[in-house]
Write a structure and sequence with these properties.
By secondary structure, this protein is mostly helical. It is built from three helices and no strands. The protein is elongated and about 70 Å long.
Length: 109
């Protein structure tokens, strides 16, 4: 089911020479990609080659990123902290009274 879009069809992919990478080179190269970039490769692979090993590798890496693993070379501040449960979410203090200077009349409906 390979589609023949010509030699430049992979030019916009996040990995240079994607079509020429070995399985091992691809496994190393995808560690630095974001989820968006992995989705680009996954879509391209699905349309062009449909190699089960490559599709599985890309999906596995997407799963890793979904659990909070950062792309390699990415500062750790890039990954937001995940709340383990609703009890760990920050709570805004309740303000019962009006704050001085913020009183406004509501328009009549």
């Amino acid at each position: 089911m390979a589609s023949n879009l010509g030699p430049d069809s992979s030019a916009a992919l996040p990995l240079r020479d994607y079509n020429r990478l070995t399985h091992g080179e691809l496994a190393d190269s995808i560690l630095s990609l974001t989820a968006h970039e992995l989705h680009q490769l996954l879509a391209y692979e699905w349309v062009h080659a449909q190699r089960d090993g490559v599709l599985g590798m890309l999906r596995a890496r997407l799963t890793e990123l979904g659990t909070g693993v950062a792309p390699s070379g990415t500062p750790s501040v890039f990954i937001p902290e995940q709340a383990g449960s609703p009890e760990n979410l920050p709570v805004m203090p309740r303000i019962d009274g009006a704050i001085e200077g913020t009183e406004q009349r509501r328009p009549a409906l």
